[in-house]
Amino acid sequence: MMSNKQVGYLGPEGTFSQKATLILENEDTEIIPYPNILNIFEDLSSNVIDEAVVPIENSTEGSVGITLDALSHFDLKILKELELPIQHDLLVQKGVTIDDLNVICSHPQAIAQCRHYINSINKPIHTMESTANAARYVTEISTAAVIGNSILSKKYNLEILDESIQDYDNNVTRFVIVSNNDQEEITGHDKTSIIISLYGDKPGGLYEILYEFAKNNINLTRIESRPSKQGMGRYLFFIDMEGHRNDLIIQDTLETIQKKVAMYKLLGSYEMTVEGE
Amino acid sequence: MMSNKQVGYLGPEGTFSQKATLILENEDTEIIPYPNILNIFEDLSSNVIDEAVVPIENSTEGSVGITLDALSHFDLKILKELELPIQHDLLVQKGVTIDDLNVICSHPQAIAQCRHYINSINKPIHTMESTANAARYVTEISTAAVIGNSILSKKYNLEILDESIQDYDNNVTRFVIVSNNDQEEITGHDKTSIIISLYGDKPGGLYEILYEFAKNNINLTRIESRPSKQGMGRYLFFIDMEGHRNDLIIQDTLETIQKKVAMYKLLGSYEMTVEGE
Q1: Within an 8 Å CB–CB cutoff, is residue B167 touching chain A?
Q2: Inter-CA distances, B202 with A69, A211, B234, B237, Å
Q3: pTM
Q4: Secondary structure tally for chain B: helices H, strands E
Q5: pLDDT of residue B277
Q6: Least buried of A3, A186, A189, B181, by fewest C-beta within 10 Å?
């Protein structure tokens, strides 16, 4: 008998990561909460789990640094992506009003997505490892509120004091499934992701690389720089493009680019954005 | 009588931001700790303070998103920069050993710069608003340790249990002085910073902009994308170049670029990297 596929995500239960995982994976998959993203990648790369679902980018707060760093460090592939709309609410114990509060708790990303709101109510912040941990804390402390999703209100018996408090309405987080195994399936609606570093680490040298894409009319959906950890001013570039690496034009372009860069890593080709609910 | 210049920084006392501020500003400047970076920018833009010293980029963890967002939101100028080497230590109450610990506390950036170490000692993390807040917490809880700089050990009477625990040796944070006033002084060793957004928000269009720099042999020291907050896939680009905006070649290039972009903002020209101690 084959055992079920095991997939790690950033837990605990009730986080947006869990929601993304439930959308991306089949019902018979065993999904396993992890305390932090680095642990997920370590277990994945040593085959303790089969796949991982991790956040990679948010439309308000930008890249998730630890995910990009792990993708550059480990030898893994992206199999799929999901853009999940993120709505944050302010949750409190039943009957608590805004005047009763003396602290707002949440994960740093959630806090960063609600800065204007937090500033407008003028309460101190307490950052925590997850929105679920913050919710648990609020069940014990009546003067605390948690910023998180509405699922937490049911799970922790909390009241929604204020709804949809994120700074920007179109707040979306992109999640990816990461695996040790590659896939080559072309869906006709694909995206390809690579990481490169430039000779001499000169950001200006990026021009020559972008020229290769522009020349071949390859549409880039994202260019993101990350520190190479080799000192200030030295970067890796994460580039996403429309098309599959087995499309002839992409294949040719990537071959040319490989000859021009100091480091090249293919993160995979996968179907573009499965829309979240 | 003229009152002293007032400069805001991310407090409380004992943080790397304070250290950077003391290096960057004169002795007779009044330096004022703030609870968060957004508050600093708000007070600066409404002239409550004269200048602000804020972290903008770390060589391990990358950009400080809230600083970039504030630079794009408010109409302010960069006057100066400083690259400060960042060494993190693990601090505990006197006599406490690693086996006694059940939690590691610090600011999310400090935690992110010491991920490998934290993973190797396998203790849970508790993120806090500042390293100084975490140090204060450790003075009360003997089973907690704080990741922070050695100044905290004196200020809070803590012992250094482990030294220089950051993941990468060349760990540097770049700080900038931000002001309402511009300056035009050419030092001969200058840098110019701009923000642009592209028509249609296509990252591939960055190629045409980089071409203008490459054509004129202008060396770029940094290209950083940030979400424009208008939805997934739409970015602003922060570009730093060598040279002063009053250098003829930079002036011409920037004029050409202004005609090709949807949004253009000059953040200023300023002397390149004052080395920290």
Answers
A1: yes
A2: 24, 14, 7, 11
A3: 0.89
A4: 9, 15
A5: 45
A6: A3
Question: Alpha-carbon distance A267 to B136, whole Å?
Answer: 43
Bond preceding residue A227 cis, omega within 30 of 0: no
A235 in B contact zone (CB under 8 Å): yes
* Interface check B102 vs A, CB under 8 A: no
Summarised one tens digit per residue, pLDDT across range A177-216 is 999 999 888 999 999 999 999 987 666 789 999 999 999 9
pLDDT above 70 covers a percentage of chain A that reads 97
From the list B160, B9, B177, the residue with the least C-alpha distance to B87 is: B160
The answer on pLDDT for A31 being more than 50 is: yes
Which of chain A's residues have a Cβ under 8 Å away from the Cβ of B230? 168, 170
Query: Nearest C-alpha of chain B: how many angstroms from A100?
Result: 21
Whole-number Å distance between alpha carbons of B126 and B105: 5
Picking from A198-212, A226-240, B62-76, B170-184, which range would have the lowest pLDDT averaged per residue?
A198-212
Tell me which residue in B35, B128, B206 faces A223 most closely, judged by beta carbons: B206
Q: Chain centroid to CA B204: how far?
A: 27
Contact A203 B223 (CB under 8 A): yes
A28 CA: distance to closest CA in chain B (Å): 31
* Interchain proximity B38–A168, CB inside 8 Å: no
* Model pLDDT for residues A130-188, shown as the tens digit of each residue: 888 899 999 999 999 999 998 899 999 999 999 999 999 888 999 999 999 998 889 99
Q: Give dist(CA A88, CA A116) in Å, integer.
A: 13
Whether the bond between B12 and the residue before it is cis, its omega within 30 degrees of 0, is: yes
Chain B segment 134-153 residues within 8 A of A by beta carbon are none
Which residues on A lie below 8 Å from B224 (Cβ)? 225
**What's the rounded Cα separation, in Å, for the pair A119 and B80?**
28
Residues in chain B: 277
ipTM of the assembly?
Answer: 0.86
Residue B231, pLDDT score: 78
Comparing alpha-carbon positions, the chain A residue that sits nearest to B166 is A229
**b/e sequence A149-167, b meaning 16+ C-beta within 10 Å:** bebbbebbebeebbeebbb
Amino acid at B95: G
pLDDT at A274 over 70: no
A277 pLDDT higher than 50 = no
Residue B12 has pLDDT above 60, yes or no: yes
Q: Which residues of B touch A119 (CB under 8 A)?
A: 38-39, 42
Please, are residues A8 and A40 in contact by the beta-carbon 8 Å criterion? yes
